[in-house]
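Changelog-adjacent note: as of this version, every example in the card shows the full chain rather than a window. The one below runs 357 residues end to end.
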Amino acid sequence: MSYKKEYCGRILNGDYSLRLKNRLQDCIDRFSRFDESGSPAVPYISAWHEKEKIIWYEFVSKRFTELMGCNNSELPECFRKSVIDQREYKNIDNGIRQKVISKRKLRGIRKDLREEIKKRGAVEAVYKISTQKGDTFWLKDQAIVESYEADGINISLGCLTIVTKEMEAEEHLKRTEEALKKSEEKYKEQAIHDNLTGLYNTRYLYKALSELITDCSKNGQSFSLIFSDIDNFKDVVDVYGHLSASQALQELAVTIKSTLHEPAYAVAYGGDEFVVVLPGINKPEALEAAETIRLKIKETEYLVDLGLKVKLRASFGVSTFPDDAIRLSDLLSLADQAMFNVKKSGKDSVSGKARDL
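Full-length structure tokens:
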């Protein structure tokens, strides 16, 4: 048995079975010839003892040490420290699923991973590497594992392939998909929200109310609407200008939201008008909720950051399903009419009564 001078392992020089040594020597000879062929693949032979935590190399390609920027004896520690993450790919439900294990997590599960590899008899993973020189690349690892129970030794006969371009393309695709998903989510949010106040818009209101009417009709439940309009808001525009008036509406929207609890929500209905939807709330409870909003608005000072202390007032009308109406248009009209009646009778109040339509 001929031991090469560049041999970096410990099995051939250790107290192990002849069967293991012969097999290992044969593999080293074959891997050496393959490495000298100039192939871009990076062969290696690693090993570990059942009772030890460390993994060492019995054979390493010259290219492996060149990539990592270290010598044979330093390679195990150097490689371990350079791994950013480990990625596995599995066929699940007719698709390929990627599992990413971070460097931090790898530290705590190395023993379990070795046990799993031993049971499978194979290794297939991709490592993201960052060397001490600052180089980042990806290595695909494919190997078979042989166990020698009598010696308590497992050896991994593997080959590393540089797959940096492929993985960079995958990373780019993933980032593009994530950006597209965020863009779609942002668009969906913008499509149902008012640009100025951030409240829901009328597009969302009509769709959501139609669904709410259907659900409440089936379940025998009620809900209420609050229709509100800011009193004399034109005076705010005339005195402070359109930009300040818009800021006042933004701040008022915050005031309204602060009084609500899910599943209740507020809608910017248009101009200085707002609608509040109160699922599961009857007429007396809705009148009380409207009064709470009215008082909160009345007590709040607006445009304070502009050095102003603007006071606002609002009028409110309430309608309830199914007590007042069962159609969406009728419910909104009744709440609007009740609010209009408040405007005519002095403003800054709440009403649940409307004229006949």
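Structural remarks: Residues 30 and 204 are 69 Å apart (CA to CA).
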